[in-house]
């Protein structure tokens, strides 16, 4: 990009050159009045030619200067980029976080206010870090270039090199993640005053005390800092800080504005131990589920979660929460203990996911997050006592319980329409019928993409309603679950070919013609691809046009 200061200097030097040319010419005129007029005219012509060139050059460079300040459109301190400005922004800003969004996307709308807060804060404190947004429905060329298949998709550019964004969706999470990527893994602290200021500033601060910062323990600490995006890290070797916090040996200390306020790790300072220590202490003993904490809950290394569903307005709320905390302390580091306020309207989806009604609360569940989905465990009783919760959690930890699978009752009219209605209890008998090819849509009633697909799916059912070999079906996966098929996003479409135990993910285009060709070909993937159709278009929150659970 153009350097404003050097450009201005160039313009001034050229203006001075013209002035010098004028002075020189005036002297020449005074000395050469007796020469032929043609010399005079020639010199005047040359002068004006030079002046004209300079004026043009000044105009061009001034235009460039104006472009430097007006090149990028901004909305609430977020750069608004297009195909014409994207590359310039990536080149100009050392660190750039770019959000590819769709105007109609619910997840994008939820992110927007947090994104603006982060952009505004960083613009003031760290101007080398900028946030940008791109309307992916308009800038399709950019979307394709960066493999955007869901909304919002966030890409991080460091010195022009793209990478994935791995932080949370709240303003503090975004800021912390970007600051860490743009700065040192751990902030060097050399005096007590600076350390105390940072401790006061952060809700959670990891501070490594190492007398030798080249030691294996210090290297392990920095390794963990580099892989942990939502915790601020500091490091020190200062004797004054060892003395202030009464340490006489290397240690990792977590300063936190919750629970006991401070936790220390002094033994076995290797990557595994430090990571486990931070994982066990980075959240309160019992954490309320909300927009601010969700990324920390699901983004941590502890994948076993106990969820207590209760009303914050209940007279027994504090009593129930206190006994829940006593159990949580016994399983610290093994499972996260979370409570969900059922009074919050937007938590209705969570209740639906667990097939829990508000009238069923208070109650609790245990979940284990894995690569293939989530295993859910349901207690035999909803008694909210420390003994009942403790026994239930211990049985899951010991592997003495099997996951709970939800299923609706089989509707009386499940086969009344061309599209057959499947639930957990009749799924195997229909979808795994080896005499037929079965194409199943796994959907959620609230999913916008599922609603868009619905009329096409109904047409598809109508197309094959008289077929003896093909069945078109659908299953509400928010209320029905299967042991061997984990649904990670909506809609998901799977093909169950006849004479086979195979389950095939459908990854073709989502048009009537594509579905028909796919089925008539016996499930050949190439048959479902249509030239010129971008399957990524319209995706929200998951792979290939799937919404998040």
Characterization of this structure:
This protein is α/β, with parallel strands linked by helices and 549 residues long. It is built from 17 helices and 23 strands. A six-stranded mixed sheet has the order 1-2-4-3-5-6, with helices on one face. The longest helix has 34 residues. The protein is globular, with a radius of gyration of 32 Å. The N terminus and C terminus are likely disordered.
Task: Provide a quick synopsis of the model.
By secondary structure, the chain is α/β, with parallel strands linked by helices. The protein has helices at 4-31, 37-70, 86-92, 106-125, 140-145, 171-182, 192-201, 216-227, 239-244, 271-281, 294-299, 317-330, 348-353, 386-397, 427-431, 448-463, 512-520; strands at residues 73-75, 78-80, 95-101, 129-135, 153-158, 161-164, 187-188, 204-209, 232-236, 251-256, 262-265, 286-288, 304-310, 336-341, 363-370, 373-377, 419-422, 437-443, 470-476, 489-490, 492-496, 504-505, 547-548. Helix 16 links the parallel strand 18 (437-443) and strand 19 (470-476).
Measured between the Cα atoms of the first and last residue, the distance is 43 Å
Regions with little confidence, pLDDT below 50 for 5+ residues: 1-70, 531-549
Percent range for β-strand residues: 15-25%
Q: Which sequence of strands runs across the widest sheet?
A: 1-2-4-3-5-6
Proportion of residues in helical segments:
25-40%
Radius of gyration (CA) equals 32 Å
Structural class: alpha/beta
Q: Which sheet architecture does the biggest sheet show?
A: 6 strands, mixed
Overall pLDDT score: 84
- Helical run tally: 17
Shape: globular
- Please tally the β strands and state the result: 23
């Amino acid at each position: 990009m153009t350097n404003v200061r050097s450009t201005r200097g160039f313009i001034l030097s050229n203006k001075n050159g013209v002035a010098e040319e004028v002075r020189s010419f005036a002297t020449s005129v005074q000395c050469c009045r007796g020469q032929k007029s043609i010399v005079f005219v020639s010199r005047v012509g040359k002068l004006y030619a030079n002046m004209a060139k300079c004026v043009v050059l000044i105009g061009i460079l001034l235009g460039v200067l104006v472009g430097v300040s007006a090149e990028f459109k901004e909305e609430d301190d977020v750069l608004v980029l297009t195909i014409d400005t994207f590359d310039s922004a990536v080149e100009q800003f050392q660190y750039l976080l770019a959000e590819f969004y769709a105007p109609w996307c619910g997840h994008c709308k939820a992110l927007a206010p947090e994104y603006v807060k982060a952009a505004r804060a960083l613009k003031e404190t760290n101007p080398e870090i900028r946030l940008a947004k791109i309307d992916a429905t308009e800038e399709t060329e950019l979307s394709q270039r960066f493999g955007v298949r869901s909304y919002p998709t966030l890409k991080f550019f460091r010195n022009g090199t793209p990478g994935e964004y791995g932080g949370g969706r709240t303003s503090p999470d975004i800021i912390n993640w970007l600051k860490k990527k743009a700065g040192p893994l751990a902030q060097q602290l050399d005096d007590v005053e600076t350390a105390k200021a940072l401790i006061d500033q952060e809700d959670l601060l990891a501070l490594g005390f190492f007398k030798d910062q080249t030691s294996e323990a210090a290297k392990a600490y920095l390794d963990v800092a580099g892989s942990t995006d939502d915790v601020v890290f500091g490091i020190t070797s200062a004797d004054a800080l060892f003395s202030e916090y009464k340490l006489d040996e290397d240690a990792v200390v977590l300063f936190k504005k919750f629970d006991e306020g401070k936790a220390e790790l002094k033994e076995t300072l290797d990557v595994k131990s430090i990571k486990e220590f931070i994982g066990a202490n980075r959240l309160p003993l019992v954490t309320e589920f909300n927009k601010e904490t969700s990324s920390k809950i699901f983004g941590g290394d502890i994948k076993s979660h106990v969820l207590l569903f209760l009303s914050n307005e209940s007279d027994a709320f504090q009593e129930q929460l206190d006994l829940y905390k006593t159990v949580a302390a016994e399983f610290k580091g093994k499972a996260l203990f979370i409570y969900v306020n059922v009074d919050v309207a937007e938590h209705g989806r969570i209740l639906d996911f667990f097939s829990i009604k508000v009238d069923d609360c208070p109650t609790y569940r245990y979940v284990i997050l894995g690569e293939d989905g989530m295993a859910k465990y349901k207690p035999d009783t909803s008694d909210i006592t420390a003994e009942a919760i403790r026994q239930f959690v211990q049985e899951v930890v010991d592997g003495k319980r099997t996951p709970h699978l939800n299923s609706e009752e089989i509707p009386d009219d499940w086969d009344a329409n061309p599209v057959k209605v499947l639930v957990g209890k009749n799924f195997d008998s229909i979808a795994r019928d080896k005499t037929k090819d079965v194409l199943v849509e796994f959907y959620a009633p609230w999913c916008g993409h599922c609603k868009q697909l619905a009329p096409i799916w109904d047409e598809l059912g109508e197309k094959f309603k008289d077929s003896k070999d093909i069945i078109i079906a659908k299953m509400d996966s928010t209320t029905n679950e299967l042991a061997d098929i984990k649904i990670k996003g909506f809609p998901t479409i799977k093909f169950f070919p006849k004479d086979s135990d195979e389950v095939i993910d459908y990854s073709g285009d989502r048009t009537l013609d594509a579905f028909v060709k796919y089925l008539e070909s016996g499930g050949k993937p190439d048959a479902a691809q249509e030239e010129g159709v971008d399957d990524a278009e319209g995706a929200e929150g998951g792979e290939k046009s799937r919404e998040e659970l």
